[in-house]
Amino acid sequence: MAAKRSGAESKGSGRRGASPQSGQEPRSEPPLSLERIVATAVELLDAEGVDGLKMRRLADRLGSGAMSLYWHVGNKEEVFDLALDSVLEYRGPPEIVESRDWRGDIVHLLEDWRASMLRHPWSASLLPRRALGPNILIRLELLSKTLSGAGVTDADLNVAIWSLWNYVIGATITRANFDLSDDDRAAAQQRLTGLSQHYPTIERSRLLLDNDWDGAFRKGLDFLLDGLAPRQ
Amino acid sequence: MAAKRSGAESKGSGRRGASPQSGQEPRSEPPLSLERIVATAVELLDAEGVDGLKMRRLADRLGSGAMSLYWHVGNKEEVFDLALDSVLEYRGPPEIVESRDWRGDIVHLLEDWRASMLRHPWSASLLPRRALGPNILIRLELLSKTLSGAGVTDADLNVAIWSLWNYVIGATITRANFDLSDDDRAAAQQRLTGLSQHYPTIERSRLLLDNDWDGAFRKGLDFLLDGLAPRQ
DNA sequence: ATTGAACTCGTACGGCGTACGATTAAATTG
DNA sequence: CAATTTAATCGTACGCCGTACGAGTTCAAT
C-alpha cells in the first residue's frame, strides 16, 4: 500500500542530489516535489488559464511523466486547491502595531487581497467554490479582529464580514473576467450603443466603458464601510 | 439562425431501417428546436450542475443524437450562454409606477435577481465570465434609472451600480457554492474549532455556521445602501 | 418526379483524467 | 557485502469528452 505523502511537508530530505558526477545525463531536472508541482501549476495557470491546466502539460513543464504527479497529489482537483491556497498566502505587515486607523487597515487588507487575486486571474473564480484554506482563514480572522476592535458589535460582525467578502469576491471575479475579454467589452458597448433607446441610462453613464476599476473598487468600498461603521 | 451549410449530395442508397413515424412508433418526440434545447439544458444543469452538462447527455434527454444539436447551436459554450440568459429573464413588476420608495424597489430588484440565480445554482458563477446578455442589461438599466431618480449623482452612479453588482454576484456565488457542500461546511467548522487558537474571532462569531443567508444578504445590502445614499 | 434546403445522426479523431503495473533508484537490514 | 524493502517514476490503456465530417432523411415548392 503505497501511502501517499499527505499534507505534512518535511523539509530537508536532501538526498538525491549527490549524483551529478555521472555525466551522461544531458539535463538533470530537480526531483519532483509538492512545492515544485504547485509552483509550476501556478505558472501554468497564470499563462494559460484554468482550462490550460492539464496534467500532461504540467508534467511537461516539470520534465516528468504525467503519472508521476500522482505520487505527490491525489488528483487534479487537489492541484487546484493547492495552487489557490499558495496564491492567497498573506505576507502580513511586518510590524503588527495597533493602528489607530482601522479603516485604513481594512482598506489595505482588502486591496492587498484583491491585488493578490488579480495577479492570478484564475484564482478569484476558484475561491468561492473550494473549501476555505488556512491562508484565507487568516485573512478573515484579521478582518474580523479589526472590525471588532473598531466597534462593530458581535451581532453585526458576521454580516459585516460577509458583506466585505461578497464585495471583494464579486469585484475581483468581474474585473478578472472582463479583463480577459477586451474585445467582448467593445462588442458589448457596440451592441449597447446600437440599442441605446432600450438602455438609455447605462448608455449615458458609459457604464461598460469606465476603466477605472481600482478607483471604483476603492470608492465602493468606502461607501460600504460608511454603511457598516458610520463615522460619528 | 446561423446558417450552416455544408455541401450535401445525395448518393441515394436508402436503406436503413426504422424510418417512418407512421402509426407503429410509440415515441413521438417533438422536433428539435432552440427553445427545447435551451429549456432541457437548464433542466440538466439544475439536475447535474455545470460539469453534468454534456452534449451527449443533453441529446439523450432530447431523444436525439448528439450531433443534431449542432445544427441549432454553434458549440457547447453557446448552450451555456443561452441557458444563462434564459434564466436571467426579468418578469418585471406588471405596473411600472413611480414608486415613492426607491429603496424598496432596489431591494426588491436585487433580491429577485439573487433568487433567480439561486434557483439555478450554476448560473451565478457563469454570469461574470460571459458577455452581458440582454436580460441582465435590462436589470442594470432599471437599477441605474432607479438610483439616478433617487438622487445619486452621475459621478457616483457607476460606482454605485458596480458596488451593488459586486455585492449581489459575490453573495450569490458564495451562497450557491456553500449550499452544495454542507459536509464541507461541517468539516471546515470542525477544522476551525480544532484550530480555534489560530482563529479565535471567527470561531467566536461562528462565522461558518451562520445559516441565515437571506437575512445576512438583506442586512448587508441595507448597510451598502446606507453608504451609497445616506438618508438625511 | 425532381429538387434543394432544413434537419438528423453514425463514425471517427484527438485529447482529457487517471487506474494499473512494471520499472528503477535509494534506504535499510542482515 | 548481498538481499530486501521502500519511494518514486512513467508507459500503456481505458473510458469519456467535444466536435469535424459527411451521408442520410424529410418535406415544401416546383
Structure description:
Two copies of one chain form a homodimer. Helix content of chain A is 59%, strand content 0%. Chain A is mainly α and 232 residues long. The first copy, chain A, has two domains: 34-87, Arc Repressor Mutant, subunit A; 102-228, Tetracycline Repressor, domain 2. The longest helix of chain A is centred in the last third of the chain and has 27 residues, at 154-180. The first copy, chain A, is flat. Chains A and B meet through helix 7, helix 8, helix 9, helix 10 and helix 11 of A and helix 7, helix 8, helix 9, helix 10 and helix 11 of B. Chain B binds a DNA duplex (30 and 30 nucleotides) through helix 2 and helix 3.
Low-confidence stretches of chain A: 1-27
CATH topology name of the largest domain in chain A, in short, is Tetracycline Repressor, domain 2
| Alpha plus pi helix count of chain A | 11
Rounded to an integer in angstroms, the radius of gyration calculated over CA atoms of chain A is: 23 Å
Pair of chains with the largest interface and how many residues each contributes:
A-B, 59 and 59 residues
Cα-to-Cα separation, first versus last residue of chain A: 64 Å
Helix content of chain A: 55-70%
Structural class of chain A: mainly alpha
CATH superfamily of the largest domain in chain A: Tetracycline Repressor, domain 2
Total separate domains of chain A: 2
GO molecular function (chains A, B): DNA-binding transcription factor activity; transcription cis-regulatory region binding
Protein name (chains A, B): TetR family transcriptional regulator
Keywords (chains A, B): DNA-binding, Repressor, Transcription, Transcription regulation
GO biological process, one term (chains A, B): response to antibiotic
